[in-house]
């Protein structure tokens, strides 16, 4: 399986084929929002899947608040974790979660940023897997340590100044839900919730719908930067756009980093021009 054959989102049927054709190459990671409390974890996982904690393994907890709620992990720490998960340089990694796909998208973004090319998100997550009639496993898999080599800088990022510049041009998207946006956001950011590209079954809309959702229906439309609260919903938006053929940068620190800086202004209420009343 070559890099060009690995989509950003993979369906259950295609994943089944990958597991049949090259089971030794595919590594499954179940991304849990908070391993300590169970978070997105359930009563089982895809057979062979390793559980990964978003808060402690896909983010750093010792950073200054102005770096945000979930700053990127140190590449050396991430590499140690990834080797523990059994990842190799030639692995095809499929990440999933048990809810909306946002946590899985954070894992997709971090691994792609770290230089791993063949990473896909299971479209619809664990629910899609069980809806297709597949069983779950409750046993911890025996994983042989991997030898993957990871770095940084594999995906485009925004810092606070770059995010502010895009917001001033109306080109910064806040991917949180409307209520979180109204409670506080970067001035000038547009509210385009990530959940809007998910269907009733939790699977991603088609490419045309995704591009239209983010205001990119026209071929010459300017590509926005993505932000959210702490780099999770925004990562999903970046992944959805990538699946639709659009490369967009992510402000990893997002509003949690922005609002921790007393020199940064904060806007509240509905997006101007929406006709909504501020709370």
Automatic annotation (TrEMBL):
Domain Rhodanese: 43-138, 166-267
Region (Disordered): 259-279
EC number of this enzyme: 2.8.1.1
Keywords, ordered alphabetically: Repeat
Coiled-coil ranges per UniProt: none
Origin superkingdom: Bacteria
EC primary class: transferase
PROSITE patterns in UniProt: RHODANESE_1, RHODANESE_3
Reactions the enzyme catalyzes: thiosulfate + hydrogen cyanide = thiocyanate + sulfite + 2 H(+)
SMART domains: RHOD
Keyword Flavoprotein: no
InterPro entries the record matches: Rhodanese-like_dom (IPR001763), Rhodanese-like_dom_sf (IPR036873), Thiosulfate_sulfurtransferase (IPR051126), Thiosulphate_STrfase_CS (IPR001307)
Matches recorded under PANTHER family: THIOSULFATE SULFURTRANSFERASE
Listed name of the protein: thiosulfate sulfurtransferase
Organism: Pseudonocardia xinjiangensis
């Amino acid at each position: 399986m070559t890099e060009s054959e690995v989509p950003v989102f993979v369906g259950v049927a295609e994943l089944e084929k990958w597991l049949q054709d090259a089971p030794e190459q595919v590594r499954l990671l179940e991304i849990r929002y908070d391993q300590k409390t169970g978070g997105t974890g359930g009563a089982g996982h895809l057979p062979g899947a390793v559980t990964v904690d978003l808060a402690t393994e896909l983010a750093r907890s010792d950073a200054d608040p102005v770096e945000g709620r979930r700053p990127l992990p140190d590449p050396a720490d991430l590499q140690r974790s990834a080797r523990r998960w059994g990842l190799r340089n030639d692995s095809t990694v499929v990440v999933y979660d048990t809810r909306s796909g946002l946590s899985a998208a954070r894992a997709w973004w971090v691994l792609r940023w770290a230089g791993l090319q063949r990473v896909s998100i299971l479209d619809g997550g664990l629910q899609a897997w069980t809806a297709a009639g597949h069983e779950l496993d409750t046993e911890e898999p025996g994983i042989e340590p991997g030898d993957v080599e990871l770095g940084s800088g594999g995906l485009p990022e925004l810092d606070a100044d770059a995010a502010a510049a895009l917001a001033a041009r109306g080109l910064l998207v806040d991917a949180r839900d409307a209520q979180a946006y109204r409670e506080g956001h970067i001035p000038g950011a547009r509210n385009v919730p990530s959940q809007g590209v998910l269907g009733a079954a939790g699977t991603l809309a088609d490419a045309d719908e995704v591009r239209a959702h983010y205001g990119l229906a026209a071929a010459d439309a300017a590509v926005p930067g993505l932000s959210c609260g702490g780099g999770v919903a925004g990562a999903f938006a970046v992944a959805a756009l990538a699946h639709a053929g659009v490369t967009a940068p992510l402000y990893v620190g997002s509003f949690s980093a922005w609002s921790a800086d007393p020199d940064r202004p904060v806007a509240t209420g509905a997006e101007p021009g929406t006709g909504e009343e501020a709370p």
